[in-house]
Amino acid sequence: MLAHGLLLSLTFGGEGLGLPGLSLPWQARRAEVPDLRVVLVTPPPAPAAEPPPSPAESVAPADTSAVPAPRAPVADEAPPPTPAPAVIAVERPSETTWTVPPQPPASASAPVIAALSAASSALTTLTRDESTRAALDREARERAAEMAQLDRARRDTQQQAQQQTEKLAEAERLEAAKQEAARQEAARKEAARLEAAARAEATRLEAERQEAQRQAAAKQEAARLEAERRLAAQQDAARQEAARVEAARAEAARQETARQETARQEAARTEAARQAAEAARQEAARQEAGRQEAARQEVARAAAAKLAEAKAAEEQREARLRAIGQQLNEEAAKRDAARQAQSNLPSSWSSARRGRLFGRTDANAEMVLYAEAWARKIQLNQTFDLVREALKQPYTDPLVTVAIRADGTVESVSFYRSSGVPALDDAIRKVIESQANYPAFTPALAREYDVIEIRRTWHFDSAIRLY
User: Fold this and answer.
1) Is residue 140 situated within a structural domain?
2) Structural domain harbouring 282
3) pTM of this structure
4) Is the pLDDT of residue 66 over 50?
5) 3-state SS string over the chain?
6) Are 9 and 23 in contact (CB under 8 A)?
7) CA distance to 168, 172, 276, per residue, from 279 (Å)
8) Are 45 and 78 in contact (CB under 8 A)?
């Protein structure tokens, strides 16, 4: 309030250098002092005997309000007193001047009055000049004091205004610092809020990822259980089939004993041929191994990941299916032999020397080796794309008999047990025909057979498996 009061007291355009200053109410004069007026009156008449007094003797010091008339010695015979003229107020002049009202009509004492008037005028002029100089000096001193006081007040006001400005600047700086601190605090809180939101979002995403992993693991576990269930069902069916063929196996064993007896008799004759065939087989196996290695490397680049995952399970499944396939092949061989004995075969069929390999074991090692080489060619070449679309339908592993001539050509393809999907059966025929011609019989094998019938169970996972 003090600062505002001082600021409101500043005046502009006043006396001085034109700068703002401080004006106090009591410094301005609110009343005017009237100008000094001197009124001369006619003195009483002087005695006739005395000469008129000189101006130096008759002039007295002037008073600030009026000048008294000089008194002269009164003579014996004095004229009657003349009444003093009435003092009439006149209009104040615009300038400070000494005026004398008009004199009354001249009387007998005109010379004295004239002399007194001249003396009074001179004295009045002298007194007025001195008073004027004194008043001017006093007014100058007062003006100088006022100007000094005004300068001190203006300096004080300027100092106070500067101090107020500095205080306002300091207050503004403090307010700006406070606002900046508040802004930084708000930014820090906002950053903390955003960081908390980011952490919450990351936690939510992590929870979703873990939930997705859990669901994927559950799906994989369900698929594994389903595969185990199907495998168990297949094993159960195999056990039932094994129980059904058990009686036939006994008969087959008896026949196998008779055939082995015959084979022992033929052993001496075939031993030399077997040794020669063994050498030829090893050479053919080496060449076939080279071709198979090249084909295996080509296939391995495409199916390495899948084969690595299914390798352990495949070995176990292969062993089980091999045993089952051998049993089924033996039973089928018996049934085929019984049917062939009862049917009338054409002369061309009966005249061809035919060897039959139903399974993977036989007394003729050459036939077993040839069948294994034929199966490897089917399994290692890239023929899975021919059956990929047909495998999308439910099917049963088919049991297929392939008759191969001595020159490696395919004589026939027959299904002992169909897959139940005609498209898959046709695709299997295309796979067998796409790999022809197959290797020709070895000399030892060609001396015994014109045609070899190979029967295998076809299984499909990531590739074609023959059991």
Assistant:
1) no
2) 274-466
3) 0.30
4) no
5) CHHHHHHHCEECCCCCCCCCEECCHHHCCCCCCCCCCCCCCCCCCCCCCCCCCCHHHHCCCCCCCCCCCCCCCCCCCCCCCCCCCCCCCCCCCCCCCCCCCCCCCCCCCHHHHHHHHHHHHHHHHHHHHHHHHHHHHHHHHHHHHHHHHHHHHHHHHHHHHHHHHHHHHHHHHHHHHHHHHHHHHHHHHHHHHHHHHHHHHHHHHHHHHHHHHHHHHHHHHHHHHHHHHHHHHHHHHHHHHHHHHHHHHHHHHHHHHHHHHHHHHHHHHHHHHHHHHHHHHHHHHHHHHHHHHHHHHHHHHHHHHHHHHHHHHHHHHHHHHHHHHHHHHHHHHHHHHHHHHHCCCCHHHHHCCEEEEECCCCCCHHHHHHHHHHHHHHHHCCCHHHCCCHHHCCCCCCEEEEEEECCCCEEEEEEEECCCCHHHHHHHHHHHHHCCCCCCCCHHHHHHCCEEEEEEEEEECCCEEEC
6) yes
7) 114, 109, 5
8) yes
In a domain, 240, yes or no: no
Q: Does residue 205 sit within a domain? A: no
Query: Which pLDDT tens digit goes with each residue over 257-309?
Result: 778 887 777 776 777 677 777 777 778 777 887 777 777 777 667 666 666 67
Give yes or no for residue 53 having a pLDDT over 90. Answer: no
Tell whether omega for the bond before 364 is within 30 degrees of 0, i.e. cis: no
The number of folded domains in the chain is 1
Give yes or no for a contact between 10 and 20, defined as CB atoms under 8 angstroms apart.
yes
183 domain-assigned: no
